[in-house]
Amino acid sequence: MAANLVPPVQLLYTMNVRATNGPEKLLAVIKNPVTQYMPYDCRKIGTSVNAKALVQIDDFVREQFATQDHAVFVIGAMAHGKVNADYVDTEIAFSEYPLSAAIACAKVVFAFEKLWGVI
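Request: output the structure for the sequence above.
Response:
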């Protein structure tokens, strides 16, 4: 039954989403605290349109992560408001305007692609 459900509904029922053509888990609900799944030496960056530090995301990634391997970006699933995560080290804004989570993720990924020279 779960294989025929829409992924968000499948996630609610089975606590994970599996690939349609195999047993591979694509998404799973994890238990708190989420920090237990993060590398111990990673920088945790919170994002919010209301953050005091407005940065150019390409420059921020190049300056902060040129020599560091691990990074966690906390991005909310809403365009307004912010995630209250007590485990973030730094909070930044990389737009003066509210962004959807999809656009925020894309901007961060593109900044790392630029840093690593991914074509």
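The beta strands are 16-18, 25-28, 43-47, 53-54, 71-74, 90-93.
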